[in-house]
């Protein structure tokens, strides 16, 4: 089921952006797998660290989607701000996810 979700999302993103699949196929799949695994891990453990990792992965997905939209579909004025903003917040969230496990639990 998870693999089907990844494949469907990759095809949808490629078709919406009107991009040849080979141009971004690997990038989309890697980021989708990363965000899906981070989400599943958070649902299993419900730790702040896993929440940061899931948010970071999703922000990377958003950053790359904005980058692809701006490059392949239509340029927009706030592209650099939005792409870099989501990218740096994603980096911060992933850095925050590296911590002592089992220290804090979400309630």
Q: What string, H for helix and E for strand, traces the elements in order?
A: HHHH
What's the end-to-end separation, in Å?
29 Å
- Low-confidence blocks of residues: none
User: Helical region count?
Assistant: 4
Number of strands: 0
Structural class: mainly alpha
**Percent range of helical residues:** over 70%
Quick one: overall form?
flat
How many strands, which pairing sense, and closed or not: the largest β-sheet?
none
Name the beta content range.
under 5%
Q: Please, what is the average pLDDT? A: 78
The Cα radius of gyration reads 15 Å
Structural overview:
The chain is mainly alpha-helical and 107 residues long. It contains four helices and no strands. Helix 2 (21-45) runs antiparallel to helix 3 and helix 3 (48-73) packs antiparallel against helix 4. It is flat and about 40 Å long.
What tags apply to this protein structure?
single chain; 107 residues; mainly alpha; 0% strand
Short structural description:
By secondary structure, the chain is mainly alpha-helical. It has 4 helices and no strands.
Show the helix and strand layout:
Blueprint: H1 2-17, H2 21-45, H3 48-73, H4 79-96
Helix pairs in contact: 1-2, 2-3, 3-4
């Amino acid at each position: 089921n998870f693999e089907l979700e990844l494949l469907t999302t990759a095809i949808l993103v490629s078709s919406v952006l009107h991009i040849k699949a080979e141009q971004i196929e690997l990038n989309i799949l890697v980021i989708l797998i990363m965000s899906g695994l981070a989400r599943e891990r958070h649902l299993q453990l419900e730790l702040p660290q896993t929440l940061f990792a899931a948010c970071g992965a999703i922000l990377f997905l958003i950053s790359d989607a904005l980058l692809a939209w701006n490059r392949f579909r239509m340029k927009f004025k706030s592209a650099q701000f939005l792409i870099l903003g989501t990218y740096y917040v994603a980096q911060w969230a992933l850095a925050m996810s590296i911590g002592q496990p089992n220290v804090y639990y979400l309630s």
